[in-house]
Amino acid sequence: MAEKKFPLRKEEKINLLIDGINHAGEGVGRCNGMTVFVPVTVPGDTVQAEVVALKKNYARARLVNIIEHSPARKEPECTHFLSCGGCRLQHMDYGEQLRLKTVLVRDSINRIAGLNGVTVNETVGMDYPWHYRNKVSLHVQECGEGYELGFYEEGSHKLAGFFKEGAGSNSGCLLVDRELNEAALIIEMLINKHGDKFHLKRRTDSFFRHVVLRKAFNTGEIMVVLVTRSGDWPQQKAFTDELLSLWPGFTSVVRNINDGPPGIILGGENLILAGRDYITDRLGNLAFTISPLSFYQVNPVQTMIVYRKALEYAALTGKETVIDAYSGIGTIALFLAGQARKVLGIELVARAVEDARQNALLNKINNVAFHHGKVEKLLPALTARGLHPDVAVLDPPRKGCERKTLEVVSEMKVPRVVYVSCNPGTLARDCRYLAGKGYRVEEVQPVDMFPWNAHVESIILIKRAESRM
Ligand code: SAH
Fold first, then answer.
1. Is residue 38 part of a domain?
2. What is the pTM of this model?
3. Helices 424-435 and 94-107, axial angle in degrees (round to 10)
4. In what order do the strands lie in the sheet with 321-325?
5. Angle, helix 424-435 to helix 403-411, in steps of 10 degrees
């Protein structure tokens, strides 16, 4: 049998021009007719790279040398950029990043979904794309005689610990709110002071596991969640007292117990160490309570842009019945309720449904109802009971909508669908399905919710081509 021929060899050094990025933010070029992904490159770079993996349709290569710099290349702001796996695009100009995100979404709609004539607007960026995150989850790890807080290095369990004074030129994370960075420094110091003797003597596996910090940007309230294993912690009170003496403003200090396997940050049990077990934030005119386990968008400034666009695309007049599928803590449903007749939310996580109901009460909104369960199960059940929505908002997780959900939407001939997507790949798949069932994808608005990361959020207006019979 003839030996299978690849146009490239492993460990081969190649020169190539980078002319795009993929969904992971890696530079894309071509060599000997093969697509090659090279991390940490920018469109417009000519590079020398070493082939590290060969697949059927593409190769991966490691950057060896930049032969010619792209004008869009810039020095990363963060000194930990290459070791920490958090950011992917800090080596490129912010304007270029927005342009590339628009290209990713356009490509998904035109090329992958095969849809023409769709207006894909420019990506809406941030005026100041730093310190935008209202939440940070840090690992706590033993190091020598003490503990360190930080993120894992890419693809490893090695800590890129930089929540300490003098950690390179920047301490803390440039994407995280500044006050939360400061709080992390204090907490690291206090864990070292009040955790040390106790834990190191016992030598059990890492008693302290994570620190999760959240801030409500519009009220200033901060929540500290200290994730530990179960069991006594003799210095718990001393830790809490000193924390509050150094930072009296914390609204909520919670100890979360997690004896589970690694990978899941929070356990199910919360003990209040100080204050209450939730914080309250405002988005527009609405207030939301956020508890340690609730999902809440991490970039509230851009979230408002997404929700306003969803409201615009929903084109409500006050007469409509609206479905908010994948409703989380009810933010979109409550945002639309003021301009609709009725909104029905559907959400899988019981605690989020409780929060959503609580948020409806808090805001005195009574034309909403939240159902607990899977969209793909509940939507057919509600339809069988005579539901006829005028608008369906779909905001699924990265894997997109289940086929059943899209089938029901198209069988019900819902006249208007507003799709909120955080993954252009599954968005393309779902749009193509709806387009084959009598829908027209009209307009797409990408929004940059995660500057310096490759992710891009999009809001899509999809209309029924022919109206209900
Ligand atoms: N619309 C909300 C939440 C979006 S995140 C917001 O803007 O904040 C997606 C949500 O879908 C999560 O809350 C997740 O728990 C929920 N979810 C995931 N799969 C689901 C399913 N099959 N049925 C219902 N909800 C689901």
1. yes
2. 0.92
3. 30
4. 119-120, 439-447, 457-464, 416-421, 391-394, 321-325, 342-347, 368-372
5. 40
The answer to whether residue 303 sits within a structural domain is yes
CA nearest ligand 1 atom 22, residue: 374
- Output DSSP code: residue 131: S
Q: Active-site positions? A: 422
Q: Does some domain include residue 344? A: yes
Atom of ligand 1 nearest to the CA of 297: 8
Residue-level pLDDT, tens digit, the chain, 469 residues: 455 567 899 999 999 999 999 999 999 999 999 999 999 999 999 999 999 999 989 999 999 999 999 999 999 999 888 888 789 999 999 999 999 999 999 999 999 999 999 999 999 999 999 999 999 999 998 877 788 898 888 778 888 766 665 555 567 899 999 999 999 999 999 999 988 666 655 555 678 999 999 999 999 999 999 999 998 899 999 999 999 999 998 999 999 999 998 889 999 999 999 999 999 999 999 999 998 988 889 999 999 999 999 999 999 999 999 999 999 999 999 999 999 999 999 999 998 999 999 999 999 999 999 999 999 999 999 999 999 999 999 999 999 999 999 999 999 999 999 999 999 999 999 999 999 999 999 999 999 999 999 999 999 999 998 654 4
Q: How far is the CA of 314 from the centre of ligand 1 (A)?
A: 19
Q: Which residue's alpha carbon is nearest to atom 8 within ligand 1?
A: 328
For the stretch 366-404, what's the b/e string if a residue is b when 16 or more beta carbons lie within 10 angstroms of its beta carbon? ebbebbbeebbebbbebbeeebebbbbbbbbeeebbbee
**Residue 188 sits in which domain range?**
135-283
Ligand 1 pocket check: which of 304, 343, 347 to mutate, most ligand atoms within 8 Å of Cβ?
Answer: 347
Same domain, 404 and 345: yes
Pocket of ligand 1 (CB under 6 A): 295, 297, 326-328, 331-332, 346-349, 352, 374-376, 395, 397
